[in-house]
Amino acid sequence: MSKHGRVLVAMSGGIDSTVTAMLMHEQGYEVIGITMKTWDYANVGGSKKETGCCSLDSINDARQVSVDMGFPHFIVDIREEFGDYVIDNFVDEYLAGRTPNPCVLCNTHIKWSALLRRADALDCEFIATGHYARIEKTAGRYYISKAADPLKDQSYVLWGLEQENLRRSRFPLGDMTKQEVRKLAADFGYVDLSKKAESYEICFVPDNDYRAFLKRRVPDLQARLEGGKFVNTRGEVLGEHKGYPFYTIGQRKGLGIALGHPVFVLEIHPETNTVVLGTEEELLRNGMLVGRINLQKYEHLPKGIEALTKIRYRDAGAFAKLYPQSADEIRVEFLGHVKGVAPGQSAVFYEGEDLIGGGIIMA
């Protein structure tokens, strides 16, 4: 009988999930490893050699660790559910003129639900992943707190996890730095793995070219978008663009237009295939509407609570006051001005190190 119960560990074959499995094993859990195949190159294409979490090499690496440590390992094919939800949403959001965040959707709607279903089938009380974040509990509620390593903190992409997900999850790397994780891997005898490079790309866009991905996914897209116009805030035509889905709010580089001064994407209008350009000052906003809210630390959000608000993964954040409009929407009033508020991206709210909750930027 194990000391702490049975845990299902998500294993990608990378260093973080491998060390997670090792730590859970050492801590006295009965470990079962699982590798989820979410996509393949036959479906998404791309110019790079197949690497990353869904490659055959990575799957074999995960299986080898389980053999070395003496615990069972399963491979689960979730390509259909992943593609139907995450990839289709990715395409649909760009076609709607918004900027999606597929990692959030994958974590909260695909990976966790898939893991918990398999955990139940295998009689596992817990699941564990290699995310850099911590789980805390106050007044009967579970919530994410930032990781000890600020350079690796992944709390931003975990705002959508609900209470039952959090109750059953374990993040053993949350109190560790990446350097400590690499050293542990080497100490366990996985020297090559400890030196393995990390990927920061969207897994199903391995060449990091989302525009080419959209064209492959929607073959007649380019033809449908010909003749789109760049305009200024007065509606005056400045030139032609390559198609509105190929631009994001706040973008400055790669616009393909020279006006003699820096300009940024301010608005995207899919119904007219129009992209509005303007100055950096015109890009500034002092508020936004956030929907599809999931609260973690509080069951009900105190009106006017002040929170550090991040609107992108690598965003340092800006302080704002939060005003609930309904159970599913929050009006955010920044205490200063911010730039690059992009509908479709995640807005995540923090109280100190603790994650209050988050949602999707609507406007």
Overview of the molecule:
- There is one protein chain.
- Helices cover 28% and strands 28% of the residues.
- It contains 11 helices and 17 strands.
- Among the domains are: 148 residues, HUPs (Rossmann fold); 59 residues, SH3 type barrels (Roll), CATH 2.30.30.
- The longest helix is centred in the N-terminal third of the chain and has 20 residues.
- The mean pLDDT is 91.
- A 6-stranded antiparallel barrel has the order 12-15-14-13-16-17. A 5-stranded parallel sheet has the order 3-2-1-4-7, with helices on both faces. Strands 9-8-11-10 form a 4-stranded mixed sheet.
- By secondary structure, it is α/β, with parallel strands linked by helices.
- It starts with 5 loop residues before the first strand and ends with a strand.
Helix-strand layout with pairing:
Layout: E1 6-10, H1 15-26, E2 30-37, H2 41-44, H3 56-69, E3 73-77, H4 79-95, H5 102-121, E4 126-128, E5 134-138, E6 141-145, H6 163-167, E7 169-170, H7 178-187, H8 191-194, H9 210-217, H10 221-224, E8 229-231, E9 237-240, E10 264-269, E11 274-278, H11 280-283, E12 284-295, E13 305-310, E14 318-326, E15 329-339, E16 346-351, E17 354-361
Parallel strand pairs: 1-2, 1-4, 2-3, 4-7, 8-11
Antiparallel strand pairs: 5-6, 8-9, 10-11, 12-15, 12-17, 13-14, 13-16, 14-15, 16-17
Helix pairs in contact: 1-3, 1-7, 4-5
